[in-house]
Structures
1.
Amino acid sequence: GQNIDQPTEMTATEGAIVQINCTYQTSGFNGLFWYQQHAGEAPTFLSYNVLDGLEEKGRFSSFLSRSKGYSYLLLKELQMKDSASYLCAVLDSNYQLIWGAGTKLIIKP
Amino acid sequence: GAVVSQHPSWVICKSGTSVKIECRSLDFQATTMFWYRQFPKQSLMLMATSNEGSKATYEQGVEKDKFLINHASLTLSTLTVTSAHPEDSSFYICSARDGTGDTEAFFGQGTRLTVV
């Protein structure tokens, strides 16, 4: 079966750095996405990785290791508005998006 | 990025009635649209995938006669919840992609359905 694992909840302090991990086992791989979802709203796109390595975009970076079936989302200089759920999703061999359950990130002052 | 417009944002309906939710891609042709349902504090659950001009493919456990999906054009897909019941109350989100391949999915704003 297809499976994506990420922590259920994480807590971090404003101004700090947090890393949200995602591991996956899917039938094929055509890319990995990270989305941010605030409560009651639709997800918004953060990043896309298809090759190994680190993609940096402002305060957010995403890393991928295809051989390990592993990715992480790194958030720097945390702000209170970063409190949200972060969803990891993998595009499988049929180009279907397989979703993780999401990681609820709580930012404390 | 591309824009997907979903309407209505929220709707309250009586048990037994039907509700139609529209999803439009405003500046691109969405060859594939996806409909998701999300219960509070739970992950997105794919309900069905629709390709323009063909019948939708429903995920296991989703009743196709209850959740009618129409994807008649490259910019519009509709989800109709027929004979809605309180357990159908949920957050429904559509998503669209431009062609097949490694393109990101653009999401509508979501529709919060409450059945009373």
Note: Chain B has a mean pLDDT of 88.
2.
Amino acid sequence: SYVLTQPPSVSVAPGQTARITCGGNNIGSKSVHWYQQKPGQAPVMVVYDDSDRPSGIPERFSGSNSGNTATLTISRVEAGDEADYYCQVWDSNSDHWVFGGGTKLTVL
Amino acid sequence: QVQLVESGGGLVKPGGSLRLSCAASGFSFSDYYMSWIRQAPGKGLEWVSYISSGGGLIYYADSLKGRFTISRDNAKNSLYLQMNSLRGEDTAVYYCARCTSGRDAFDFWGQGTMVTVSS
């Protein structure tokens, strides 16, 4: 089955840029989606189809996808961005929806 | 606005059964594919099952091995998950989620219902 690999944690100072990676075999050929989950809350989609933002998501959130790595970039990081972030793809070979293991973003 | 409200979770003994429900509102439920996704305590997200808008296309995660059954009642705007032969590793928060129009992602999630399997 298809595997997505994320770093367990990323730390960044307020106002700086955070980059969270998601690795997968030829992931650039798939559409990658990203979710933010704060403690005790349900996940919220922050980026879909590699780089599009749902309504209401700040422009500070952006995404890219090429080769074997997709990246979620959060510019001008705020304390309120501290959360777990998950990447996700649909694996057409198995008709399964796959999540990465998640990355905990810490704002220093 | 889109709302998804899960119910039916609780404490159940190993080998027991539970039926989860998800009440949808704020959108045309019968037009959307839906999924169940779970999260074990302190762990990541795991996709569980998917059902097409009319109910004719269904997929399950391999780990379930035929123990779970997804269904929907479009007249009642409701999604269900029948869980049988429950095991300790099924302990998790279960979320229902609406699939995007592209059907490959999840644009709205409920708040989840906790299922605890323990003797």
Note: Chain A touches chain B through 25 residues (CB under 8 Å).
